[in-house]
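User: My instructor asked us to take a sequence, write out its structure as tokens, and then describe one feature of it. I'm not sure where to start. Here is the sequence I was given:
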Amino acid sequence: MGVKYLWDTNTAIYYLQQQFPSSAEQFIDSTLSDSSPAISAITEIELLCWKTATEKDLEVLHNFINDSLVFELEKDIKLKTADIRKAHKIKLPDAIIAATALVHDLILLTRNVSDFKNIDGMEFINPHEK
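Assistant: Let's start with the prediction itself. The structure tokens for your sequence are:
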């Protein structure tokens, strides 16, 4: 099974908390039929910072992370992040997530389209609009 999509942190949270509308849930489920979930190291860190997580939430969270391909901060991603930050006013975590998607030629699944819309070559899908 290949990887086609990079999940932004908000996508993972909506999915894990079952907060997607049914059309978005169906879209995400369809992506999982032929693509493993993939996240940036930044998304992994952001998920692990979930302060109000219950024990059950933490179990689901750790299972999700273990089932996901986690892209670490390799040199190509760091260099692309710097390029993005020089060209755009964007928060560092978002720049790292964008760079990860671009370096690995993945489509970003995010609700925060406005954070990424001006980045050249960036492909994204808002599951909420599916």
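For the description part of your assignment, you could build on this observation: Residues 5-129 form a domain with the Rossmann fold fold (CATH 3.40.50.1010). Try explaining in your own words what that tells you about the chain.
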